[in-house]
Amino acid sequence: MEMINDEFYMALALDMAERAQGQTGINPVVGCVVVKDGRVVGLGSHLKRGTGHAEVHALNMAGSDAEGSTVYVTLEPCSHYGKTPPCSERLIHEKVKRVVVCCEDPNPQVSGTGISMLRQQGIEVEVGVLRERGRRLNEKFIKFIMTGLPFVTLKTASTLDGKIATRSGDSKWISNEPAREIVHALRHRHQGIMVGVDTVIADNPELTTRLQVEGISPVRIVVDSKLRLPVGSKIVKDGLAPTWVLTTDEASQEAAERLEAYGVEVIRCGPGPRVDLLHGLSKLGEREIGSILLEGGGTLNGAMLEARLVDRLLMFIAPKIVGGYDTPGSFRFEGVERMSQAIQLHQLEIEQVGDNISIGGIPVWPE
């Protein structure tokens, strides 16, 4: 049986924040719980960028019970005027007694000032309750607000012998249905989905979110140095989600205009012959894409890893062996000479998904 303490109420706030992943844009996901005289009197989550923050929703629910209450919030209350007024001011106005904060806000506009503002007004503040869970939940926001670059999650599915297709190119399906449902949940929780043009030519995918309930489809991003993307492909013609293409300065202007006629946005990223991937991510960040699910083939996956542009890796492994001397694998790049130079995964998360295994973690490159 769970103990009822600060961690108990903070876990509830984090649970609420977690459910809103994917719908707040570049904003963090935040949950808030207001407790008075041993009762939960207010609950709130941040639901959409530009609308009320979690604290506002929870305090509105609490009403007059907010005075003298303890407020549990998963991210430091904001202290600046943005699209909404500062939450720290609202907490002070409501005369709350105590605020328990999961983790500090890395946004330079906040970064400790919200906590200081509360303490200066005599409100007791405790920081760091379930901090690591809170930071993990908002890792996409933290990366974007600190660097201006999107957080990249590389997802791949392979056989036991590391293949992502058979020798004929057949790849449906390597992973099982529960694993594919997880992938669609990941699409819902990322603002962009990235593939290489060869994946589109080979598979003609939709790259949308398909869940048992309604979901949010990400912006479809294709890395295509020569603008070979067929105008007849689904992602060009179906209109189900925006499609953007990262290309080079040397790509044909005529090809660009053909794609633009269908509403595709063409973004030039460097002189060529290959797309400058860091430049591309920077341009996506400028367009307020704060997170990307990379579902590339071996070449794009390898290039992103070589460039050290992957923040988290998730691999599904199916209990199948397909063999083949030239069959494609998950990661294609020059490789290293010594095992000590290998890219390693830290903070491992391993889970059995039916008869598949998922292995996730943070890639760490050797010095």
Automatic annotation (TrEMBL):
The active site is at 55 (proton donor). Its EC number is 3.5.4.26, 1.1.1.193. The keyword Nuclease does not apply. Its cofactor is Zn(2+). It catalyses: 2,5-diamino-6-hydroxy-4-(5-phosphoribosylamino)-pyrimidine + H2O + H(+) = 5-amino-6-(5-phospho-D-ribosylamino)uracil + NH4(+); 5-amino-6-(5-phospho-D-ribitylamino)uracil + NADP(+) = 5-amino-6-(5-phospho-D-ribosylamino)uracil + NADPH + H(+). Substrate binds at residues 171, 187, 203, 207, 210, 295. Binds 1 zinc ion. The keyword Transmembrane helix does not apply. GO terms for biological process: riboflavin biosynthetic process. Pfam families: dCMP_cyt_deam_1, RibD_C. InterPro entries: APOBEC/CMP_deaminase_Zn-bd (IPR016192), CMP_dCMP_dom (IPR002125), Cytidine_deaminase-like (IPR016193), DHFR-like_dom_sf (IPR024072), Eubact_RibD (IPR004794), RibD_C (IPR011549), RibDG_C (IPR002734), Riboflavin_Biosynth_HTPR (IPR050765). Keywords: Hydrolase, Metal-binding, Multifunctional enzyme, NADP, Oxidoreductase, Riboflavin biosynthesis, Zinc. CDD domains: Riboflavin_deaminase-reductase. Residues 4-126 form the CMP/dCMP-type deaminase domain. NADP(+) binds at residues 157, 173, 199, 225, 297-303. Pathway: Cofactor biosynthesis; riboflavin biosynthesis; 5-amino-6-(D-ribitylamino)uracil from GTP: step 3/4; Cofactor biosynthesis; riboflavin biosynthesis; 5-amino-6-(D-ribitylamino)uracil from GTP: step 2/4. GO terms for molecular function: 5-amino-6-(5-phosphoribosylamino)uracil reductase activity; diaminohydroxyphosphoribosylaminopyrimidine deaminase activity; NADP binding; zinc ion binding. Zn(2+) binds at residues 53, 78, 87. In the C-terminal section; belongs to the HTP reductase family. Converts 2,5-diamino-6-(ribosylamino)-4(3h)-pyrimidinone 5'-phosphate into 5-amino-6-(ribosylamino)-2,4(1h,3h)-pyrimidinedione 5'-phosphate. This is Riboflavin biosynthesis protein RibD.
